[in-house]
Amino acid sequence: MNERLTKKIEQLKEQRKAVILAHNYQPGEIQDLADFTGDSLGLSIQAAETDAEVIVFCGVRFMAETAAILSPQKTVLLPEKTAGCPMADMITAEQLRGLKKQHPGAIVVCYVNSTAEVKAESDYCCTSSNAVEVVNSLPEDKRIIFVPDQHLGQFVAERTGRDMVLWPGYCTTHVLMTADDIRAAKAKYPDAVVMAHPECTEPVKELADELLSTGQMLKFAASGRAKTFIVASENGIIHALKKQNPDAEFIAASGRAICPNMKKITVDKIVASLEDMQYRITVPEEIRTRAERSLNRMVEILPSK
Ligand code: 13P
Ligand code: SF4
User: Fold this and answer.
1) What residue ranges line ligand 2, CB within 6 angstroms?
2) Among 52, 55, 172, 252, which residue is least crowded by beta carbons within 10 Å?
């Protein structure tokens, strides 16, 4: 990024009392200019704790919505209004109400990749880094409805041994990676450790050595237990991994694992966002308070890894 733009963003941030948060899947130059980068849980905690007046969220809509739910007094901006998450839109609040009717007495856990309305209909929220801990904290005699990601749900059901009803949602980017991609990468780099995101399909996860959220991948890579890693996740994470571990090698399991929505954020859009205070993300108060309850429960449960 050129010096003029860097200066401009610094000035605008000061003028607006703004902080820039970026998800680990953002383009490299956006990660580099952000005040804080992280996984969904880390970003939620950061959004709740920052004393800035304005949060510019470089990610997708549900992330900005989460920040608006947790910090209603702050102005939350999403630099590109069409940056959404297809998985989050795979279940509506009405569909979830129908599922609850089919399974009376079940506890609803929703992945943070969901709309504010779905969070409001849920008992607990979780991210990929604390989903196992959240489910393990629930009474053992209760059935659990898990929405919307079937693949994260499958992973949690296996790790916890719990009776879970899964919604057939999925990440349109993570499902593009195949078991053949992993086999080909392993054949080329036989000593590499395979890190896969729980949003990957089951055949991919079976071939992985570690199943980790993006934040957990960064921690695992920094632990020094290996020098070469095959990464089955959205490829933006490779930038963060390389930056934090310059001596290690990171190989993308597939060149197809690119989330087009995450890549909609650009430096120019961040400038426009701060200049024109756009696009403001708000959540109606009645939905916000109910969604906040399930999000607060999530923020309190930290991952063990
Ligand atoms: P995490 O960064 O929490 O692993 O989230 C993955 C994801 O798909 C976000 O959209
Ligand atoms: Fe949604 Fe997948 Fe993109 Fe994350 S990577 S925002 S889950 S489509």
Assistant:
1) 25, 60, 85-87, 113, 171-174, 234, 259, 261-262
2) 172
